[in-house]
Amino acid sequence: MEVKGTAVAVMPVFLRKKFQEEGFQRWLQALSPEAQDIYSQPILSSVWYNLQTHLLEPTVTLCDLFYDGNKQGAFEVGQFSAEYALKGIYRLFVKMGSPEFILKKAAVIMTNYYRPSRLEVPLMEKNRAVLRIMEFAELHAVIEQRIAGWMQQALVISGVKNVNLLITSSLTKNQPFTEIIATWS
Question: What is the rounded CA–CA span in Å between residue 118 and residue 13?
Fold first, then answer.
């Protein structure tokens, strides 16, 4: 399974902003040599990286070091990633688009970040949507939280309020899909 460099590149930016250079170095030293190697050089946004080594391990390490193992750290990285990615013209499209438009585009966005992956939106109502991750071979709870954090922040950027996301089923628990119910006002 692979992840786009865009998702990988946000980790050092997030760490340096939230935990300063000292926190980044502490995190970097806690990584495997292979992950350290990637994060010690420029990360190319257009390159595909190994999901396990270059996103999962670094995110778990972040959660362990700075959040006492709580997956909230992964959610916050996801939120930060949306802020980081949705700049300039992209931000304008998100602000002009409805939440429904953004969530319908989530299927395309997902495949641009993770491969192979597949996301469906089986239900779209006013102020509520159901998203299902149907394919994601190496999904892990911290990756689910990163994705949920990204979705939550993208909805906030679009101008909606009181965004809530609830993961009701999970591929990580051998269920047929990961289901995320999003509500907002």
Answer: 27
Could you give the CA distance from residue 182 to residue 161 in angstroms, rounded to a whole number? 12
Residue type, 17: K
Query: Cα separation of 18 and 10, whole Å?
Result: 12
User: What region, left, alpha or beta, does residue 174 occupy, with left being phi > 0 and alpha being psi -120 to 50 degrees?
Assistant: left
pLDDT at residue 152, rounded to an integer = 94
70 is written with which tokens?
């709580």
Q: Return the amino acid letter for 139.
A: L
**pTM greater than 0.70:** yes
Instruction: Give residue limits of the domains in the chain.
Output: 2-80, 97-183
Q: What is the pLDDT of residue 88?
A: 62
Instruction: State whether residue 21 is helix, strand or coil.
Output: helix
Determine contact, residues 8/49, Cβ cutoff 8 Å: yes
The class of domain 97-183 in CATH terms is: alpha beta
Q: Give mean pLDDT in consecutive 10-residue pieces for the chain, a chain of 185 residues.
A: 95 98 98 96 95 98 98 97 77 68 81 93 93 94 96 90 96 96 95
Detail the DSSP E strand segments found in 126-177. Answer: 128-136, 164-169
Cα-to-chain-centroid distance, residue 49? 15
The answer to whether 23 and 66 have CB atoms below 8 angstroms apart is: yes
Instruction: List the beta bridge partners of residue 124.
Output: 129
Label residue 103 left, alpha or beta by phi (over 0 means left) and psi (-120 to 50 means alpha). alpha
